[in-house]
Amino acid sequence: MNLSLPEVLPAEFAESLARAAPRLGSFAKEVIWYPSVSSTSDAAAVLAERGAAEGLVVAANAQTAGRGRFGRGWASPAAAGLYVSVVLRPEADVVPMLTIAAGVAVAEGIQEATGLRCELKWPNDVYVGTRKVAGILAEASTTTADVSGIRYVVLGFGINVMPASYPPEVTVRATSLEDELGREVDRALVLAECLLALSRRYSDLGQGRSADVIAEWRTRAATTLGRRIRLEAAGTQLEGIAENIDETGALVVQTASGVLRVTSGEVQWV
Ligand code: BTN
Prior knowledge:
Distance between the termini: 41 Å
Bound molecules: biotin
Number of domains: 2
Oligomer: single chain
Helix content: 25-40%
Strand content: 25-35%
Number of helices: 7
Number of strands: 12
Largest sheet: 7 strands, mixed
CATH topology of the largest domain: BirA Bifunctional Protein, domain 2
Strand order of the largest sheet: 1-2-3-7-6-5-4
CATH class of the largest domain: Alpha Beta
């Protein structure tokens, strides 16, 4: 992939990140800004391959080929959302919990910046009621089939900040922070607070405090826990009651044929 030329970070983002800098740890010491890029996660992966340090942030005003989970696209109209990817170089034992921690962090960051409380649909879709407001895509590069040979993870998050002309299939399922709050939202503050929360929750994982992350996830999981769900995982469908998440972030589902522990897939409410 050939990277287009980044531009200077717009002043409002630079100021808000400068205010947060003393609390950001290794995060956002370098921020690469694109007015438009295919995908911030693709750009971040290229930079990670070139040796980018942990905490490098790639952000864009628009994406032309934003990617979501399960090979879907992520609508990324100009100036309407936050499109952000962070390079992480975690220890292998932390990797399974990263997606859960990232969902918690984005929900916390949004709440800190705007007051809006969001819920989480397993593992890390960020919802207000039944509409999705933000999504997270964690992509690992490994030298082995499992995470023992982890090289880096690109953690990308997209937040719908302003109402915009989304494709019709997105409009029925999605919402934005401004739609929910009925007022303007400071995109730069949301970015800074999400990175701060991500930095804190990433430290929690690294310092053996995964239980704190899981406890916070559970408080935001009313849309998942205790609910009848359908889940497509590894080509098979299962249905049951989502009972809990375990200490690794796996979803524990009570099905007709017993209790199953699921590590990936998409939850649908039944
Ligand atoms: C999902 O399907 O819920 C995950 C969406 C992740 C979108 C973000 S936007 C920034 C980063 N770049 C991408 O291409 N995708 C992620």
